[in-house]
Every structure is written in C-alpha cells, then in structure tokens.
Amino acid sequence: MASKSKKPAESTQKKKEKTAPFFMNEKFRFILGSIIVLVAVYFLIAFISFLFYGAADQSKLDLKLKELVLDREITVQNKAGKTGAFLSELIINKGFGIASFILVYMMGVTGLRIISRNLVRFRRNLVYSLVTLVWISLALGLIFTKAENGSFIYWGGRYGYVLSTWMSSMIGFIG
C-alpha cells in the first residue's frame, strides 16, 4: 500500500511542474517587461519634449483628450505626438512636476526586473524613489510657484504646489 500512494503523488507533481501559470511563463514576462520599458522610453521622450515645446502646445492641451486626438487639424510640437503632449501635461503639471522623471526611472527598473535584469536592489530603490518623488515635488512646489515666474509649467506639479501651500499656511514658509 505504501508504494501505491507514492506513484499518484509523483504524477500529480509532474503535472504541476509542466503547467506553469500564464503570468509566470518566460515569454509572457519578457513581453510584459519589454512593453513596460518601451512605455518608459516613450514617457521619457514625451517629458523631455514637454520641457522644450510645452509652452507652444499649451493652448491645445486645454481641449478634451477625445477632441485633441481625433481632430487631424490640431498639431502639437511634442515629439511624442498629441498623446505624449497630453500625458506630459497630465503627469507633470497636474501631478508631481519635474519629479515625474522619477516615475519614468521606476517604470524602467520595474520592466527590467520583470525581464529578470536586476540592476539595482528593487524594493529599497522603490521606497527611496517614492520618498524622493514626494520630497522633490514638495520642495519645488515651495520654491517655485506658477504665479511667480509666469511659466507654463508647475515645477513641483499641482501636488507639490497644493501641499506646499497647505504646509505654508499651517507652519509658515520658514517652518
């Protein structure tokens, strides 16, 4: 009886080894990681282009996304196209400001981690990146306000601007 119970256990173990979950498949992980890295490169191009051409595209970015993308007569100077200009406006001005480049870095590291290319310590780097993202956004929101320099860009983003305004009202500028 003891020998009979070992044979079914071995056969079920072999079946488990053969059928790996879809998301653990090597090909799927490589494709997913590659897509994430490519999206990070796209965001990097869009963000850099936004820094140079954002002022020229500002009036067009006030439109809804559907109108902006579907109307062929509207052109933007952003090298990533209309979608890149819209996403840059959304993530930089309405998000974390210049610190949003850290999001691109985090996406790149995550994509490489999925491909099994561990260039940095992932968890520690993720925590440091998130803390740095919030801190830089807050600091730039405190230093640069949109009203002061008349620029098209919130250097600290809307997040940094609102949080720095709130903190200044609570503890003062010096605090």
Annotation keywords:
8 helices, mainly alpha, 175 residues
Strand content of the residues, in percent?
Answer: under 5%
Average pLDDT score: 82
- The low-confidence runs, each spanning 5 or more residues with pLDDT under 50, are none
Largest sheet: none
Q: Number of helix segments?
A: 8
Number of strands: 0
Rg from alpha-carbon coordinates: 23 Å
CA distance, first residue to last residue: 77 Å
Describe the fold and architecture.
By secondary structure, this protein is mainly α. It contains eight helices and no strands. Helix 2 (26-57) crosses helix 4 (81-96). The model has no long low-confidence stretch (mean pLDDT 82).
Topology of this structure?
Blueprint: H1 2-18, H2 26-57, H3 65-70, H4 81-96, H5 101-114, H6 122-143, H7 146-149, H8 157-171
Brief description of this entry?
This protein is mainly alpha-helical and 175 residues long. The chain has helices at 2-18, 26-57, 65-70, 81-96, 101-114, 122-143, 146-149, 157-171.
